[in-house]
Every structure is written in C-alpha cells, then in structure tokens.
C-alpha cells in the first residue's frame, strides 16, 4: 500500500493527493500540471492524539525509514525473491518501538507536523545501513547466499510523535508510556525545527521548447510531444534522457519501456556480449560478431511481479543481437506505457539476473561478489508488443507479459 497525504496545489491552493511514488500531479481544480520534487525522500507525519499537545508536554517527532520493494537473494540453487514492506527506527536509541507496524497504512498522514510547536529529529543512521540489515534477513533459496539486491519502489521517512512529560517519554499517538529515558531528546541531538521546505514543485514545462511535458503520476521520465525530448526531473534540475522506439507500433499495439544500459566490468571479465554469454555458461553459440558487440543490460522500466521482471529482463537481454536499432525518434502512440522504474534501480538487478539465467549456477554464482559492474551508457527504449490472447508479445525477442498483470501494477 502506497502512503499518501494531501498538499496545496502550488498554483491555486486546492488540495491534491500525493503518494510516495508521485512524480507529476495535475490539480483537479485549476488543471495545472506540476512535477513533484522532494529533497531526499518523501516524509510523512503520524497524527498526535487529540488533546496531546503543549499543555501536556512539548511534542517531538522521531524518524522511521519505510522500505517498500523486492529483495532478490542468490545462491547456487537459484534466485529467491520476496516483497518487503517494513519500517525501521532511524536512530540509535533504546526504549523506542523498533517498527511502526501498520500505523502508517492505517492512520491519516500529513506532510508537516500536526503540532505547530513541535520539533523534528533528523535521522541518526543512514538509510543504506538500515536497508542492508533488512536485505540480509530477506528470503534465502536455502544455501549460502552470495548476493542480495533490493529493487525499491519507494523509500520514505515516517515520523512518530513523542512527548516528554513527568519524567517519562510517551507515544503521542496512543499516549502510552515508553521505556526510553527522559533525556532522550538531549542524547539524540540534531533537531531540524519543523523541517520545512523539503517538498517543492516545478512547472511541467519542457526546458528545451517551453511546451507542456507529458507523463503519468508515477512516471520517472516526462516527454515533450512538441520537440520530441525526454526529461528526468530532480532537485538539481532537468536531465535529458535518451529515448527511442525500436520498430513501429501497429494499430492496438503497446509500447513498453525498457532500460538499455551499457555495462563494463572493472576486471575486464565482461567487455562484449560474447564475454557475457561465456560468463553465464549459456548454450547460445557465440558468433564472431558477438565478440565485437558491446554488452547491454535490458530490464523493464516498469513494475511487475519479481519473477516476471527477471524473465522479461533475461529474454530481452539474451535477444539483444536480434533487434534492429531504433530510428532515434520518439513515437507518441496511444499505447505508450510510461516508465515507473528508474535506471539506477534497474541496474541493481544485474547480478540477480546473472544468477537467474546462468546455465551452471554452481560455477557462476560464487563469482558474483568479485564482479564489479559499471554503467557505460543509459537509454530508454520502447519495444512494440502485440496482443496475443491475454498476453502482450514482442515479435523480435519473444518477450511476453500478461496484459491484465500490467493493468494491476499500474492502476492509479
């Protein structure tokens, strides 16, 4: 379940609902589109129980990281995957709840503290450190785990309100007494005041020509129909994305987005497509042309079931020598599916993909910790998929995905 809260439209002030995966909003009152630019990750505040305020002690908010995504674990038996949706305390402090349980999903949230006089405590540990611990206790195929990766749909901060009163620390949501020491706030130190200004908005206007940008609410890339450019927006500004369509979409076809990531390995183990096939011990015959063909990782740029994600990535990656290159132009057809998974997260699946498709896992998987892959290039490619029964099928690669599954993952 995605966390959400309402925020004032930057144009007219009307209330707009934002999710932790929101990238673009369109106000239902004035119709203006804006790009959502959080500083870091989304931040949500749990409500203070009615009557728990200044007269019962000052309120301060402590941070919890919320992780939602898929963990892949690899051993010589294969790849195990599991969906993770957890909260973990973002401080090194005793006496506080280690997790928030279902409260973030069950209670109304806000982007700002509910109590005007409250203070907000900065996280005392890095999200990456907590994530490593979460991933380590993830699913295991049964043998020695050589690699784990997390492909996250979202990482957010959820703040729990506390108050100090009569020598005790109390949970300001339930008003229950906690075992934390009364000097907790002094011991954890850094406080951000009310932590304002972390969420900003940017007009959804193409920086190249001034035309309106297009994209779904969760799209990580926005498109300009006027000049054909594609953009990724962040707190640092716009970054141009190389986007292209391979082939031509027929009537009723869907254009599904894939990341095409050029890969190099530091020790030189993988410098070509032929090297990759030899690494995974794949039975495909290595042709002479493959020795000079750069290796590209292909992954879906959209969320789907973990096993389907790996299967699609494997099918298209292994078929890269069969595909005709794109014409360098974007094609805005009604069947275009907007990308909802970023290239950085797509890159994280490379070692899991190797374990998934390796023909001799007992030889290949133990090599994973020593391999150091880097990105050479990143391109967003749309492949044309035709309907065949309940499935969408790409004729060049044979990749297939159930259309109803896509609707399920991209509803709303």
Q: What secondary-structure arrangement, pairings included, does this model have?
A:
Blueprint (H helix, E strand, L loop, with lengths): L3 E5 L6 E5 L4 E3 L6 E6 L4 E3 L13 E17 L2 E12 L13 H4 L12 E2 L6 H10 L10 E19 L2 E4 L5 E2 L5 H5 L10 E5 L9 E2 L7 E3 L5 E5 L2 E4 L2 E4 L7 E12 L7 H7 L16 E5 L5 H13 L24 H5 L2 H8 L3 H4 L8 E16 L2 E3 L6 E3 H8 L2
Parallel strand pairs: 5-9, 6-8, 17-20
Antiparallel strand pairs: 1-2, 3-4, 4-12, 6-7, 6-9, 9-10, 10-11, 13-14, 14-15, 15-16, 18-19, 18-20, 20-21, 21-22
Helix pairs in contact: 5-7
Give your account of this protein's structure:
This protein is an alpha+beta fold and 412 residues long. It has two domains: 43-200, no CATH class; 242-410, no CATH class. It has helices at residues 103-106, 127-136, 184-188, 273-279, 306-318, 343-347, 350-357, 361-364, 403-410; strands at residues 4-8, 15-19, 24-26, 33-38, 43-45, 59-75, 78-89, 119-120, 147-165, 168-171, 177-178, 199-203, 213-214, 222-224, 230-234, 237-240, 243-246, 254-265, 296-300, 373-388, 391-393, 400-402. Strands 5, 6, 7, 8, 9, 10 and 11 form a seven-stranded mixed sheet that branches. The longest helix is centred in the last third of the chain and has 13 residues, at 306-318. It is globular and about 80 Å long. The two termini are 12 Å apart.
């Amino acid at each position: 379940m995605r966390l959400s809260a309402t925020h004032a439209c930057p144009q007219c002030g009307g209330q707009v609902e934002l999710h932790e995966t929101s990238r673009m909003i369109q106000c239902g009152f004035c119709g203006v589109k804006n790009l959502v630019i959080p500083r870091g990750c989304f931040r949500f505040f749990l409500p203070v129980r009615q009557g728990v305020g200044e007269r019962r002690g000052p309120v301060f908010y402590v941070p919890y990281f919320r992780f939602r995504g898929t963990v892949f674990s690899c051993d010589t038996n294969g790849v195990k995957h599991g969906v993770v949706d957890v909260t973990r305390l973002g401080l090194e402090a005793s006496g506080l709840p280690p997790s928030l349980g279902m409260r973030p999903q069950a209670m109304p949230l806000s982007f700002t503290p509910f109590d005007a006089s409250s203070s907000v405590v900065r996280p005392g540990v890095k999200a990456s450190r907590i994530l490593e611990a979460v991933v380590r206790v993830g699913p295991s195929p049964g043998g020695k785990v050589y690699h784990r990766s997390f492909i996250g749909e979202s990482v957010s901060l959820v703040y729990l309100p506390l108050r100090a009163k009569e020598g005790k620390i109390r949970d300001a949501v339930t008003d229950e007494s906690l075992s934390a020491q009364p000097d907790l706030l002094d011991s954890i130190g850094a406080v951000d005041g009310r932590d304002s200004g972390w969420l900003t908005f940017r007009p959804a206007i193409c920086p190249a020509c001034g035309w309106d940008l297009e994209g779904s609410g969760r799209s990580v890339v926005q498109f300009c129909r006027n000049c054909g450019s594609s953009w990724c927006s962040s707190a640092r500004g716009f970054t141009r994305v190389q986007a292209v369509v391979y082939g031509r979409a027929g009537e009723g076809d869907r254009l599904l987005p894939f990341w095409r990531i050029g890969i190099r390995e530091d020790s030189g183990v993988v410098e070509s497509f032929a090297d990759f096939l030899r690494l995974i011990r794949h039975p495909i015959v290595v042709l002479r042309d493959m020795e000079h063909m750069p290796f590209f990782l292909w992954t879906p740029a959209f969320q789907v079931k973990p096993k389907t994600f790996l299967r699609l990535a494997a099918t298209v990656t292994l078929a890269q020598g069969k595909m005709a290159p794109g014409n360098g132009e974007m094609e805005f057809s009604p069947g275009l599916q907007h990308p909802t998974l970023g290239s950085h997260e797509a890159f994280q699946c490379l070692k899991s993909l190797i374990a998934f498709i390796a023909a001799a896992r007992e030889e290949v998987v133990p090599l994973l910790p020593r391999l150091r892959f880097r990105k050479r290039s990143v391109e967003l490619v749309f492949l044309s998929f035709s309907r065949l029964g309940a499935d969408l099928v790409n004729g060049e690669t044979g990749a297939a995905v159930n259309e109803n599954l896509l609707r399920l993952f991209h509803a709303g």
